[in-house]
Here is the input.
Amino acid sequence: QVVNYAPFTLLPSTVPSALFEQAYAVQQDFNLLVDAISQNKEFLEHTLASTIKVDDFTARLFRIYTQVLEEGLAQSVFLGINRSDYMFDCGVDGTPALKQIEINTIAASFGGLTSRTVAVHGQVLKVLGKSKEASHLLPNNPSKGLALGIVKAWELYGSQSAVVMFLVEEVQRNIFDQRCVENELWNRNIRVIRKRFRDVFEEGSLDDAKRLYMDGQEVAVVYYREGYVPKNYDQQNWEARLLLERSRAVKCPDIATQLAGTKKVQQELSRPGTLERLLPGHAEAVARIRATFAGLYSLDMGEEGDKIAAMAIADPDRFVLKPQREGGGNNLYGEELRQVLEKIRDSPERTSYILMDKIKPQPAINYLLRAYSPLQVSECVSELGIFGVYIRQGKEMVMNRAAGHLLRTKAIEHADGGVAAGVAVLDTPYLV
Ligand code: ADP
Ligand code: MG
Here is the structure.
């Protein structure tokens, strides 16, 4: 009654190989960018100023961020695991273009389960008598790629007896995805513990050197698979988060990197000149990054925001309205977008949202398999995610990689929502 299978497509979905390669080629640039933002207090402060006035969740994260900076950072090794997500926008002439949906800098999931989907789709193709096509599927093992980042961070932390802590939710539906990464660590003789914020509140402590201990066990790396939405926090959990952030342990991610992944930051990055300021001397990286941006617009108070709000109200089907939330199912589209924006157009509340051009991919046919649901053919669109892993020690990047990919596919009647939200399913790209 409680065990279920992760939903998946019956068949792999086609992905244009040029766009697939483009997504891989820009991943190291995005790693650099996120890391640069996380170290740029002035940029974060300036960018999030309007948001934190009206969004309490971002404001609380920001308060921890400033408090920890004022106390002085105890952490010197930084591990980033992110996933940059894209859809293939169909231009007027029908040529698809790679457009970024967002970058997830905390708890980016499904790297574990998707390490198994190639085998599933390979098998299905063979059963259908398509062995040649089966051999065309690319190998993909983000579990290992993510784990290698954690291993390296654990080594640099430099304590043989210290453990890696996975910070997990109260009710954990996606445990097997995490186990895939965890097992890679056990295989390399690194101990892993799984704890909730509540456990950290009860068992966690810092010593004089701000080393983190859980019930007497030193923690080298804290890997967050929790803590990215308001419902993850009560007062105790906020205190636990503060304790973790103050510690010397490698947080994946640290709170600055979580803030770097907000939708407001994404929108500000699209302003002319911003990427150049954040990545001086990296003109080619800047060009590769910018090529993936869709139109993004600020709804800050003032003339610019007024114009944007009016434009969206007049033509809501061209846009997506996004609050500062993660996890799928939060964005507004079409008529609902128009109604909400009309209600808040003259109120500072509008600054808790950003506006984005709606990406319009070409639908394709597939079957979505989900436990207890009838099998039916659907018109679908796919979203490609590339996992990025990087490590900085002090000021020096010591690892910067792309660590595999994730393809998620959903029926076109759903405008929004990922796999965890029960909308998208796991897929495998078939390059064409
Ligand atoms: P979340 O943090 O909730 O995952 P996203 O920005 O990834 O927020 O949006 C959730 C989903 O909404 C995406 O997976 C995608 O299906 C859809 N979506 C988001 N932005 C756009 C867009 N600009 N155009 C079309 N669909 C979008
Ligand atoms: Mg998303």
